[in-house]
Amino acid sequence: MLLIPCPHCGERPEIEFRYGGEAHVARPADPSALDDEAWAAYLYLRNNPKGLHAERWRHIHGCGRYFNVLRDTVSDKITATYKAGEPRPDLPATEAAE
Amino acid sequence: MSAPFRLAQGGRIDRARPLGFTFDGKSYSGFAGDTLASALLSHGVHLTGRSFKYHRPRGILSAGADEPNALVGVGRDQTRYTPNLRAPQVELYDGLVAESQNRWPSLSFDIGAVNDLFGRFLPAGFYYKTFMWPRKAWDHVYEPKIRAMAGLGRAPTAADADRYTQRYAHCDVLVVGAGPAGLAAALAASAGGASVMLCDDQAEFGGSLLSETTATIDGKPAAQWIADTVATLRGRANVMLLGRTQAFGYYPHNSIGLVERLTDHLATPHPDMPRERLWTLRAREVVICAGALERPMVFPENDRPGIMLAGAARTYANRYGVKAGSRAVLFTAQDEGYRAALDLARAGVHVAAIADLRPNPDGELPAAARAAGLNIMAGTTVTGTRGRLRVSGATLGRLGLDGQVGQSQTIACDLLLMSGGMTPSVHLFSQSKGKLRFDETIKAYVPGQSAERERSAGACRGIFGLAAAIEDGFARGEEVAQAVGRAGGAVTRVAVTTLAAAPGVHLGAAPHDRDAATVKAFVDYQNDVTAKDLALATREGFRSIEHIKRYTTTGMATDQGKMSNMNALGIVADALRRDIPEIGLTTFRPPYTPVTFGAFAGTSRGQLFDPVRQTAIHGWAADHGAAFEDVGLWKRAHYFPQGGEDMHAAVARECKAVRAAVGIFDASTLGKIEIVGPDAAEFMNRMYTNAWTKLESGRCRYGVMLREDGFVMDDGVVGRMAHDRFHVTTTTGGAPRVLAHMEDYLQTEWPDLDVWLTSTTEQWAVIAVQGPNARKVLEPLVEDIDISAAAMPHMSVRQGRICGVPTRLFRVSFTGELGFEVNVPADYGRAVWEAIYQAGLAHGITPYGTETMHVLRAEKGYIIVGQETDGTAVPDDVGLGWAVGKAKKDFVGKRSLARAEFSKPDRKQMVGLRTRDPHDVLEEGAQIVANPNQPVPMTVLGQVTSSYFSAVLDHSIAIAMVRGGRARIGETLYVPMPDRVIAVTVVDPVFFDREGVRLDA
């Protein structure tokens, strides 16, 4: 079970959270300006990296807030968590992503 | 019954406490401290099982968790029966009932043993090769037969009568394994006050030391050092000792699964005691002290009962006071095996010969054996064994300088010991995603780079030898104390005296002069995989051990190859002439040993499996004989049968009553969300297809919510309570999903909006009063609200009081009748319900359930999201195009609706279906075609989504999603059923009061 540091509540076990998919996929400001292909990419195309992944989690059984997590998909190691809206920290990929 | 193989003295058993037990119906005796295996061996019983595939007689091979053969079913009755327990791990208690498995009619005469004769037809992967044709026979003949013939224990036939409990815990340091390294690590780790948990799967702490009779530690016998150390640890408040506790799984972020056996060893457990406790532990640091397992030798016929690991025989003698035989031969490739020969000889077993694969065994232990007068045959292999239900002899062959077997002789024996080397137990380390490293000197994998906060100590990382293991434990314990900031200073080291053993370096099959194509030299005992199976797999082109494992099933039994994996790697590496690390290594997965399902389920069984949600009015419905249905976690009143009515009769009566007079319905399960804030209307505009800005306070609107992909997600009536406040309702099942969807957008896309979302589902009880008499019923109960038709039109909401309590009174209808939904604080729900019901009796009020609600709404063509829609319907498909605010610049899902695909005329559209026979009620889910005579597969146009018999119309009604349905109104289509074809006419989906005049009454 992952131990996830919620930026609002501190370290809590995974069962208090719900996964929210890839982070930093912003909804276009004017969706009507997008052609079908660009809109489909926004709707459906997501990264699936082996290594560091920026993803959203919601502390659903806690503060209820969405926040972002940098997690290594190989080792499950969490290198950073930060509030929704903040930029992704510039961290080098961990050794497990080699 | 006397136990002829029990030693007169010695061991850790209590001879003053005899215990009786049965095995396969026969009575035996043992002592407190015995295991089932040791007690059976004390009676000379080795034969305990039949093998998985060939049904060969099998005996007790080990003295621990690695046992592949002696799997037994234990339990007095089916409610407490556990199959596939390893006899060396089953603690004996008075009255224990055990049975062998996979044999018929009996263990000593097993019909299935004919498989052994036909073994040549059952090679590796035989089921891929033999049973290919005909295909159908696989399901009905081959697979059931194979499953009946092969296999292990049977599942109990009755529900588990025991209770299981679960705990979460945290500690600074978890030490796994209380052998010499683990005890030392726990001592050092806890010296400075760090909170330490020490667990061990056995009843007694000490691990390998429990079988040690000659070594001394700190100047005392090993047993005394264990006792003193455990007493020291027990005296420390910061240490928790968990015996009978298996660490079975290493999960991310130092989360460890432990299962503690609480009552399995007791003859009469206290009825309040749970059987097992599952611990989910989070440790800052972990020290794995899992020890090492002895490897068997791979030689022809190495599986007869009476053939045993040398270390196991030593444990039975030293720890349990049991001679595993009278006349023993030892086949070893390492010094460690000699320890068993020496101790068994001391216990009175005649050691007839020691066959040592090595040409010049010359360490301290061989020297001691020589001094004891034991017959050491260096450079000797075992080429075969004799005996059927028990080994009776071993054929020993001298190896020439060329490695070929020369002169051989057969030596009579009833015990053949094997010692091929030691395999570090790296299971937990590997589960933690640490990288393993192959150590050439000990020919075994050892922990390499760690992925978690863990370290290994002692034999499990290839540090063999008692002194070295204890020192390693102290050192690692000191490290973790430091790591958690609770260093206790250096621990006083202890002196150790014992004979040193040179490590064994043999892996794979031993040389022999038999026909390699026919003899069976077992590698994986539990899955009956032999050296020739592995060789065959390599000849057939398999190279990776991951593939060979799956093809031959080696290492895939319930023991996950604890004993067999390294020998299998050795054989494959030899056959492919490659180095072991090139072959790869299979993945270790939790659990280390099988864990009872009950431990994972814990208290989540029966009524506690899922929480049950009941409305405030539930008790009234139960008192009035309601039949309930499950809707998500909710219990909802389904219908209210009277005087022996069946569901159809009750629903017909309820429907008519609502249309003719008035009905009362508990709608409390509707999801409710309070949306408040200066930007509430803007937020609603973005989340729903409808326009909200111009909705006045006190008015309601039917809202449709889409996902971003344009498909209908939820719907519900929304009341605007004030300029900045909306009372949103959702479907019963959709409430959490809708709130999460809203929170997602609010928090992550539009954090600038000043809006607050609060779930109020449980706060409001909702009483629907529906029917022509609804106003008459409510009028006298309502205070300070004018509910006249003029003052309170359809789709309006007022705040005031009813029966003296605050209410939000909605004039809404899901029935097509004049209707109100009375929202009151949930605590008043039942009282208000009862007051309305009493007042309504004069007007013919009838309680109705969800089934009637469904029929009434279907008569009106109102959709239910999730019934008419299936996640691929856009609003227009279900006739809700009118609810989409065309002028709105944006809302969630709007851009998707612009896709050309969503305005094609041949999309599935919602229509009504009318059958010719009014009593033909279509089946929901039935498929609809244009031409029923078309050969299968037919062209399917759509499916029936809702279907009922309408008592009000005296005719069946159905709603369907049909391709281009709206253009087909008037057409005849067909619903093919297994026994006939039903013709239907496509009609408008509103069956009742199409003009809606009743709503506005």
Describe this protein's structure.
The complex is a heterodimer of chains A (98) and B (1001). In chain A, 9% of the residues lie in helices and 34% in strands. Chain A is mainly beta. Chain A has a single domain, classed as Folate-binding superfamily (Folate-binding fold, 2-Layer Sandwich). Residues 94-98 of chain A have low confidence and may be disordered. Among the domains of chain B are: 14-115, 2Fe-2S iron-sulphur cluster binding domain, sarcosine oxidase, alpha subunit, N-terminal domain (Ubiquitin-like (UB roll)), CATH 3.10.20; 297-419, FAD/NAD(P)-binding domain (3-Layer(bba) Sandwich), CATH 3.50.50; 670-760, Aminomethyltransferase beta-barrel domains (Alpha-Beta Plaits); 858-882 and 902-1000, 2-Layer Sandwich (Gyrase A, domain 2), CATH 3.30.1360.120. Chain B contains 24 helices and 51 strands. In chain B, the strands form 13 sheets. In chain B, strands 8, 9, 12, 13, 14, 15 and 28 form a 7-stranded mixed sheet that branches. In chain B, strands 41-42-43-44-40-34-45 form a 7-stranded mixed sheet, with helices on both faces. In chain B, helix 5 packs parallel to helix 11 (466-483), helix 7 runs parallel beside helix 8 and helix 8 packs parallel to helix 9 (364-371). The chains are: A mainly beta (98), B alpha+beta (1001). The A-B interface holds A 1-3, 13, 18, 20, 26-27, 30-32, 34, 36, 39, 43, 56, 58, 60, 64-66, 74-78, 84-85, 96 and B 168, 251-255, 280, 282, 433, 451, 708-709, 740, 743-745, 747-749, 751, 889-890, 894-896, 898-899.
